[in-house]
Structure formats: structure tokens, C-alpha cells
Amino acid sequence: MMAIISFINIQRMLTAMAQENVKLKSKIFGTVEYHLPMGRDIEGDVRFIRAEGQFGQFVFRSTKGSDYYIWQGSTMLEDDTTLAISHEKKWFTLSFNLKSSLHYIIEGMPAGVIAERCYNFFSTNKARAELRLRKKETYNSFGIIFEKDFLERWKGVFNASSDFLTVAVNRMQGKIFSEDIVISSEMLSIIENIMRFDYSNDVPQIYLEVKISELLLLCLNSVPEQHYPARILLSKDEELKLEEARKYLVENIHTKVSVPELAHLVGINDFKLKQGFKFFYGTTIASFKLNERMQKAMKLLLETDVPIKQISSLSGYNSVPNFSAAFKRTFGHSPKHVRGRRQK
């Protein structure tokens, strides 16, 4: 049976099931930090959480299989809220957005949106993510986190699954498909069957695995070939140099550096740096640099009183107007607007 608990008690209840860090934070209700329920509790492999209060409603259900993890959630909150999640593992996540467009920020990736009734596959490694939830809007989502062993069982069964596995396992951080894919009625039917699965009956868990496998293969074979990133062959040493390049960009966002200069710094040729970076991180070097700058600027605007002119400089801009224009293109609002909302 689902327990109805207060907003304050979410932290106490979920911390007892600690494995992955999660935070809810909003201007009105502040920050509540808890843990994503993974693993087993008194109901075996299934967990239900329901929280209601003046903040709104939050419902979460999770199911842990042998080498996969199913989650489904529904939220309707009374304030613009950020749901922050962090994990210390390599996650391969097939994510379906069933209701309301969902804005997300994943560490090491450009900010993005999954439109309503669309899906994509994400590869994340020891990442922090934030979901931006708008007030009084209902969000429904469903997803499956796969372990590598599950995916490898399907390698070679279909060309799509083989190509996908190669990309997913090697993608250090990012979306696997270049564009989100519309959820078909057939996919939706399978999702609904999984969500309605009755854990109290005697139907073996193999039913879930069959349905999950069916959904995975249907999704992979529905993706147009052009949405798969082009492959590139790199040595382990070259892969490490790509990660070194990424870290340099993160730690030196205020410094201007060209692709040839960055390639020289880490010891790799220009072509492999550009193509390898796009393959492993799902974005270009220029887009990655811009995203890192904008995320730092947003954090400073929301969490500090540092003047906008100084934030512009710290974000690598010599001109405040240029910084403001880039910020507005990224987030849809000017830095002044964001700072003003925080101070209200």
C-alpha cells in the first residue's frame, strides 16, 4: 500500500533506502535531499512512494530486476521545482516522456528537452542531472536502466541492436540518438502492460524481462539510421586524451582555446579530437564549451549575489551584451530576468 507522507518526511523516509542522491528544490519550499529508491525493501523488488502536501504530489514506483531497473513517476508541483539526481555508476537509460515536455540538464551534456510522447537513450557515467519542473503541470515518465550484461545478450540479434550497443557502451556521456523519437502506439501498449503488471500474482518475473526486451528491440528498430552517430576507431590512449580534453574545458571555461590548441595540449590530432569528442560526448567541442559556460553562469545567478558583469567575465566573456545574448539563446531569458526572479 502506498504511504501518504508529508514533504518534510520525504527526506527521512527515503534516506532509509539510500543508494543514489536526489534533491528536490524550489524557491518556496527550499531543498529536500533524499535518495532514489533502488534495491529491495519489505515488498521485495518493488517500491512505491507517494508524497502529498502543500508542495503538490510526487509518486514514484521502482522495480529492480537481475540486470535492469524499471522506474515510473508522476509529479504535479505547486512551484517551479528542480529535481536533482546524481549517481556513481554507468547508466544506460531508455527514457520515455509520456506527458508534458521535460527540460533537463545532465553534467557533461548540453541542456535539452524531451518532448511529450518522445523517447531517447542516454549513457551517463557518474553524472549529476537536473530536471526542471514547471508549477501546476503534470509530468508522467517511464524508463528502464539497463546493465551492460542485459544489452550484450542482444548484440548481433539485429543490426540495430549491435550498432546501438557499440555506441552506447563507448559513449561516455550523452544521448545515443541525435534526435528524440516519437513513441509509437505499439510501444505505448507495451509500456502500459509493464506499468500495470500485478506483482501480487504468481506470474513469474520473466514476463517483465520479455516485455522489456520486446520494448527495447522495438525502439532500436524504430530509429532512423541517420540518428546513430558515425563510428570512429580510437585507441585506449586516445580515449583518455579525449577525457583529458573534456576536463580541461570544464576547468578552464573562462579561457579561449581553439581546437588545434586543445589538440596540442592533450597530444592528439585535430580530426580525432573533433570526431572523437562528438562520438563520445554527443556534442561538438564548441557546444560543450558554451553549455559549460552557461551552466556556470546560471548557477552563479541563482545561488550567489555576484554581479552580472563579473559572472560574464567568469563565464569567459569580455562583453556583457554578448554574454547576455548567449545566455538568452540558451535559456530563453536574460541573466537580469533570472536574477530578478531569484530576488523576488
TrEMBL record:
InterPro entries the record matches: Homeodomain-like_sf, HTH_AraC, HTH_AraC-typ_CS, PchR_regulatory_protein
Domain HTH araC/xylS-type as annotated: residue spans: 243-341
PANTHER family: REGULATORY PROTEIN PCHR
Transcription found in the keyword field: yes
Xref: Pfam families: HTH_18
Keywords assigned by UniProt, alphabetized: DNA-binding, Transcription, Transcription regulation
Transcription keyword on record: yes
Protein name: AraC family transcriptional regulator
